[in-house]
Write a structure and sequence with these properties.
Layout (H helix, E strand, L loop, with lengths): L3 E3 L6 E9 L9 E6 L2 H5 L5 E7 L2 E7 H26 L10 H14 L7 H10 L5 H5 E7 L6 E5 L1 E5 L10 E7 L2 E7 L7 E2 H6 L3 H7 L16 E5 L7 E3 L1
Antiparallel strand pairs: 1-2, 2-5, 3-4, 3-13, 6-10, 6-11, 7-9, 7-13, 8-12, 9-10
Helix pairs in contact: 2-3, 3-4
The structure holds zinc ion.
Zinc ion binds next to strand 5 and helix 2.
Length: 248
Amino acid sequence: MPKTGKCAICGQRKQLSYDHIPPKCCGNNGESYYISFTPEYLGNGLRMTKRKHSQNGIKFQTICSECNNGLGGKYDEDLGAFRQFVIDAINGRKPEKGFDLNNVIKAVVGHLLAASEFDSSLPARAMRDYYFDKNEKLLDKYSLLVCFYPYQNSIFILKNYVPMVFGINDPMPEGMLSSFYFFPFAFILCDKQKLPFGNDLFETLRIPSQLKFMLNDWGRKFPTWPAIVDNNHAFIASAAGKDSVFKN
Ligand SMILES: [Zn+2]
């Protein structure tokens, strides 16, 4: 359906096209259903609303075709190569193809922006400035954590949420802003972490030798938050978290 609006990446008013999570380069496959965590859902406990049908993962009609082509044409190839690299590492195979970490980060930032309507908050502005090479404040103020996400058939997209843990020792990063989880990745944009927490791709970009260390560790450590919601884990999403979705 044609829709005009403010592009979530460049901010111009244009006809909007669809962005998919996972993107096509990351094994986006076939038909799926997903659930949006709407304010009604949040107010009514377990009553889930808005079950949506989608081809090819979770889709958001939020970005103009120029930004869509830029994301798909310039950066997704490296994100796809990163994914293959990680899958090879998990399976003990020697990775065949390298990737440009800067492009991987641009792809992640672009898709995180595309996962909601145009957002004028400070983090979203820093993300856009970084994406368009205006400045690198994003790297100074925030962390982009990446961890292993082992669940092949579920996708989480979460925005503005507070994860909670009961009864077990499971540290969590602070100030989570935006994240998506699809095999084999959990990408989490959050406030700058004081303690080393998982692998911060923004720091890895500055110290590329960390990347090897990070990939060696891949698959051994992975978060149980907030992808698992069980007796020990839960999360609270604010009304601002209305773009959060879950698929399994
Ligand atoms: Zn645009």
